[in-house]
Design goal:
four-stranded antiparallel β-sheet; globular
């Protein structure tokens, strides 16, 4: 299917490269999906949201094709995977969900090939990594999972090369696990996060670096943004962090341009969306934030063909 990626037409639908932030909780769980167009950072809210109101879910995307939102907590953990086709923002629900009802998990994707959903809570914390092939949305479970059972971790990916899953707890860890897409083999980076953190967000500039932002350490929310260069997996910490110390936030990226870090809990629930330009890692804050103040949502993005 051929498309032009700036407000291009796909089978009669306008396709807008954008970040999607789905679900979460304000005073109660929501099914809301907010969409931020990369062309001007404007926000719309999809007419069709998640198949049910849920929080603590995970997101990943087959860029150019569809976003996947997996698991989460409704009245209890769920295995549901909702898929939003970028052509028309149409929602379907996969016939096969996660291998177990799970919440507080994390997602990352090898665009064009598969989504990976890792960790979280079933009846207890798990090391499980489920893989969904984009060719037919079938699920397999990796023989090697995370290096430790954690929840409230974050994911990001160097599409075509590897997925990175960072932080989580409990106890809180600095661990960053890397899954090579060539064979799904896991290694653990020699240098982890700057601080043991959970409830953080991830986003990536594919080909260049992963960013892990915010969260909570053992005593307080943090505004830290750690950056892992894909060339050598070396970590640096940005001189400018989030606009406020925030946990339970979500990330998505316009690969090649900017990361968007949205929502969460600062001194209270927030609707804030911070944008980090990949050109210089400078931060700005969007004039229009999420449609409601909320936390515990998931992010995914359509950056076109990666």
């Amino acid at each position: 299917m051929v498309s032009t990626w700036l407000n291009g037409l796909v089978s009669g639908f306008v396709v807008t490269p954008a970040a999607y932030f789905a679900g979460g909780i304000d005073s109660s769980n929501v099914d809301t999906v907010d969409k931020f167009a990369f062309s001007d950072d404007s926000r719309t809210t999809l007419a069709t949201g998640l198949s049910a109101a849920r929080r603590y879910l995970a997101g990943a995307a087959n860029s150019g094709t569809a976003a996947y939102f997996a698991g989460g907590y409704e009245a209890g953990p769920v295995a549901t995977v909702n898929k939003f086709a970028f052509a028309g923002d149409i929602r379907t629900t996969l016939a096969t969900g996660l291998s177990a009802a799970t919440y507080d998990n994390a997602g990352a994707a090898n665009s064009g090939t598969a989504a990976y959903f890792a960790g979280g809570v079933v009846s207890g914390r798990v090391t499980t990594v489920d893989k969904f092939a984009f060719s037919d949305d079938s699920r397999s479970t990796l023989g090697t999972g995370l290096s430790g059972a954690v929840n409230a971790l974050a994911g990001a990916a160097n599409s075509g090369t590897a997925a990175y899953f960072a932080g989580g707890g409990y106890p809180l860890v600095t661990t960053v696990d890397k899954f090579a897409f060539s064979d799904d083999g896991r290694t653990t980076l020699g240098t982890g996060l700057a601080t043991a953190t959970h409830r953080l967000a991830g986003a990536a500039n594919s080909g260049t670096a992963a960013y892990f932002a915010g969260g909570q350490d053992n005593s307080a929310n943090v505004d830290t943004v750690d950056k892992f260069a894909f060339s050598d997996d070396g970590r640096s910490t940005l001189g400018t962090g989030l606009s406020a110390a925030t946990q339970r936030l979500a990330g998505a990226a316009n690969s090649g341009t900017a990361a968007y870090i949205a929502g969460g809990i600062a001194s209270g629930n927030v609707a804030t969306v911070d944008k980090f330009a990949f050109s210089d890692d400078g931060r700005s804050t969007l004039g229009t934030g999420l449609s409601t103040v909320r936390y515990g949502m998931a992010g995914a993005a359509n950056s076109g063909t990666l």
